[in-house]
Design brief:
globular, 78% helix, mainly alpha
């Protein structure tokens, strides 16, 4: 058990060392220039460091992304936190086996992160919102199946858990990273990322007591139904965001 902490800490330490040695924070540090990417309406005063006024509706857009991220992180941490326990209780297996099987969510979810990034880069203008919307719709379908037939067999539960991970983690990574950078100029990216990640991080905090109480009082099917509701609202919010972006364009 202790090596589950030591092992991950050693891996993290090694990656931190590689990052410290090889990472570059600015394009200029590797001989690139951002002059050709300057804002067309950027004045000389702004170029010297003065903040440019935020575009109309920009904060509303960022808060909408933050609420979408809230739903994604609620779902993600709910399944990360509770799937092993549900496997153990529903299928009467050891905690060790349940822990390994629940890893399908993260292992297959990693592929979703790569897929979402590559897919969004292939769209004209590198638009992220359509990819987020369609992947969340697929996530809604998988979450609904988890509610309907997820406890019918171990295989069904694990397969659906992996599908939800795949379709949730792609949008998760896009909303918290690329979308924040795409939403405004490079001077606004950190501000946008802070709001989006801050609102999203409330999701894991809320899900723990809510799901714990719901599972205890109403059973695991009620938990799955709650997740279906959360993903439904997240998909609807993403659809409205996509429509708003198309209208502004």
């Amino acid at each position: 058990m202790a090596w589950s902490y030591f092992g991950s800490s050693i891996v993290l330490l090694a990656l931190t060392g590689l990052f410290a040695l090889w990472a570059r924070e600015r394009p200029e540090s590797v001989g690139l220039s951002l002059e050709d990417q300057a804002e067309p309406d950027e004045t000389a005063a702004e170029a010297r460091g003065k903040a440019k006024p935020l575009p109309a509706g920009w904060l509303g857009l960022i808060f909408a992304m933050g609420l979408i991220y809230f739903g994604l992180k609620f779902l993600r941490y709910a399944l990360d936190s509770w799937s092993a326990l549900i496997l153990s209780e529903q299928f009467h297996m050891s905690a060790t086996r349940a822990g390994y099987l629940s890893g399908a969510f993260d292992l297959i979810g990693f592929l979703g992160v790569i897929t979402g990034g590559v897919w969004s880069d292939r769209i004209a203008g590198a638009s992220r919102t359509p990819v987020i919307f369609w992947m969340i719709l697929a996530c809604l379908a998988a979450t609904s199946l988890l509610w309907f037939v997820g406890t019918s067999s171990v295989l069904m539960f694990v397969v659906l858990l992996g599908l939800i991970g795949f379709t949730a983690m792609g949008p998760d990574s896009l909303v918290s990273g690329a979308c924040a950078m795409d939403a405004g100029s490079r001077r606004q990216a950190a501000f946008a990322a802070g709001i989006i990640n801050g609102l999203g991080s409330i999701g894991p905090i809320v899900q723990e007591p809510v799901i714990g109480w719901l599972k205890q009082s109403s059973g695991v099917n009620a938990v799955f139904l709650l997740l279906v509701g959360v993903v439904t609202l997240t998909a609807a919010a993403t659809g409205l965001l996509w429509r708003s972006e198309r209208t502004r364009s």
